[in-house]
Amino acid sequence: GTARATNGTNNNNIYEGDFKDGKAHGGGIFKWEAGEAYDGQWYKGLKQGQGVWRGNEGEYYIGEWKESRTHGKGIYVWSNGDKYEGEWKNGLKHGQGSDIFKNGDVYVG
């Protein structure tokens, strides 16, 4: 089903979306009290599939997730304006990608 719920340990964290067996499952948005937010697909309570994460300092990631880690193709933009576009594995840059720096420098590898 679909519901709105607060986190049991912190009632200022809010999840709105699909649930299965008491966990986020399907599409949904989780907003943390500190200002972070994730809008995307969930699987058994973990970020899985396509999603957008926004940090509380202006950084963000748009792309694929696996077991709540950046995994697959995605774009990460740091709060200083630097950007990485490419492949990720288990939360780390992995494979082909481009670092695009705010000052205009580009590294492709």
From TrEMBL:
Family matches, as SMART domains: MORN (SM00698)
Entry annotated with the keyword Amino-acid biosynthesis: no
Signal peptide coordinates: none
Coiled-coil portions: none
InterPro entries per record: MORN
Keyword Hydrolase: no
Top-level taxon in the UniProt lineage: Eukaryota
One Gene Ontology cellular component annotation held by this UniProt entry: cytosol
Keyword annotations from UniProtKB, A to Z: Repeat
Pfam families linked to this entry: MORN
Protein name, entry field: Phosphatidylinositol-4-phosphate 5-kinase
Organism expressing this protein natively: Euplotes crassus
